[in-house]
Specification:
mainly alpha
């Protein structure tokens, strides 16, 4: 019980909780929007759709540590191609992507978005492919524009699919460990120290296993609460239909 009381006095824990929520909120939002946009583009492509999907699904199949190493090299301050392109095209000074408090979290977010946006895309694409044509044809007869058909017909029909993608990515994003460990080590300072990294540091660097277990249990309760809210939203969507 002392460990659970100590949680709310631990500024490092509160910071890691804040960083985790920032990371999850940003990556899940960007990946859902990006996945939806890619799915809408691919659903209208008849030729080479299978080949394009195959190439886009390569990043989710890569090990997270490998992705971290790739993006660590891309974000290298003086030798990375990203800074080189920004400097050549826009005249921007080299950005310390993984060594700056301002940019380090964004560097991890960009890497995660690159890896997992295709995953949300394939889920939403499956939902779009299963949308019945009768409501869309009726909307066309009624004179609805393509924008109106999307927002008033297609989007409501694929909301349960989007919620499934939201649940999967939220759980996975809360568990992120390899990317920040490889790219920033949780730093600079504690700018990218998500909860999983903090648990690792407390349990396996300081060997305070009981406190690490308390953090992990609290972490589990948070995830269960969020997923319960998502599931209730999904159930309401199904009842509404």
């Amino acid at each position: 019980f002392y460990n659970f009381v100590q949680l709310f006095r631990d500024h490092a824990f509160i910071n890691s909780l804040k960083v985790s929520f920032q990371f999850v909120g940003l990556v899940v939002s960007i990946e859902l929007i990006g996945g939806l946009v890619l799915a809408l583009i691919l659903i209208n492509i008849k030729k080479f759709r299978g080949i394009l999907c195959s190439y886009l699904l390569i990043p989710p199949m890569l090990p997270m540590v490998a992705v971290g190493v790739i993006w660590l090299l891309l974000f290298s301050m003086y030798y990375g191609p990203i800074n080189h392109v920004l400097s050549a095209l826009l005249g921007i000074e080299p950005i310390p992507w993984t060594a700056s408090v301002k940019w380090s979290l964004w560097s991890v977010i960009i890497a995660d978005v690159w890896q997992w946006t295709p995953f949300t895309m394939i889920i939403i694409l499956a939902g779009l492919a299963s949308v019945p044509q009768d409501p869309l044809e009726a909307a066309i007869v009624d004179g609805a524009s393509s924008t109106q058909r999307f927002f008033y017909v297609t989007l409501p029909l694929i909301k349960p699919v989007i919620l499934v993608a939201l649940i999967i990515r939220t759980v996975d994003a809360f568990k992120v460990f390899g990317l920040p460990l490889v790219m920033t080590g949780g730093g600079p300072g504690s700018a990218t120290e998500v909860l999983s990294l903090y648990v690792y540091r407390v349990g396996f660097k300081f060997w305070n296993l009981s406190y690490a277990a308390a953090i992990s249990l609290f972490f589990l309760i948070i995830i269960i609460a969020i997923i319960t809210a998502y599931v209730r939203l999904t159930a309401m969507e199904v009842r509404g239909r």
